[in-house]
Design a protein that fits this description.
Length: 51
């Protein structure tokens, strides 16, 4: 019974770790996307109307 509890706990920890890792990766990708697009929007909507 103890072995099963330990296994369940390990699975729980692993799931939590995977979730955290996925969230971190997602946030990183979103940041990357936003930064890439800020340049595009800045050029097209700030500089071009001024020129």
């Amino acid at each position: 019974i103890q072995y099963r509890i330990d296994l369940a706990e390990k699975v729980k920890q692993l799931k939590q770790h995977v979730t955290e890792h996925t969230l971190f990766h997602l946030i990183y990708k979103i940041q990357e996307y936003i930064i890439a697009n800020i340049g595009y929007f800045t050029i097209n909507f700030v500089f071009k109307p001024l020129l």
